[in-house]
Design goal:
With 155 residues, this protein is an alpha/beta fold. It has a single domain, classed as Rossmann fold (3-Layer(aba) Sandwich). It is built from four helices and six strands. The longest helix has 15 residues. It is globular. The two termini are 23 Å apart.
Length: 155
């Protein structure tokens, strides 16, 4: 993972960009990706970019991203070493996660590269979550992390 500094949301305010929120608002903090997209819309941010919200990545997402020059994925993270959030540039890697419940961003990228001989610049905003039970609404800790991530991204 290559940490990114000074990347502005303006980079994604373009018709060639995709902003992809991963998550499930019915599972507490797993909804962080969707909430970030909702905050973008509420704040009038990245109006030119295509924005989508899905529960998990699927093989078809390789076809979705191949049409873009740049992609920003936003997802909740269970990484306990992550204090609030992390923005990084992802690299293609076939990790065979397609055999499990969900595919990784890196596998989507590798599939895109393999099938279409190209891949956009892909960045990931991972926001630390804490609870994953069947319940609607973020925990206070996850909301605070989302607020920090938005303040950083919207600056």
């Amino acid at each position: 993972m290559n940490a990114v500094n000074n990347l502005s949301l303006n980079y994604f305010d373009d018709e060639s960009a995709l902003i992809y929120g991963i998550g499930n608002i019915g599972r507490q903090d797993d909804g962080l990706g969707w909430e970030f997209i909702d905050n973008l819309d509420a704040g009038g941010q990245c109006v030119k970019a295509e924005k989508v919200k899905f529960y998990q990545l699927n093989l078809e997402d390789a076809d979705l991203i191949r049409h873009k020059k740049r992609v920003l994925f936003i997802d909740a993270s269970r990484d306990e070493a992550l204090e609030h959030f992390r923005l990084y540039k992802a690299e293609p890697k076939m990790d065979f996660s397609f055999t499990s419940h969900a595919m990784s961003i890196e596998t989507i990228m590798a599939t895109c590269l393999h099938c279409f001989d190209s891949c956009p610049d892909v960045y990931v905003l991972a926001i630390r979550g804490f609870e994953w039970e069947l319940s609607i609404g973020l925990t206070a800790q996850a909301q605070a992390n989302l607020d920090l991530a938005c303040a950083y991204a919207f600056a």
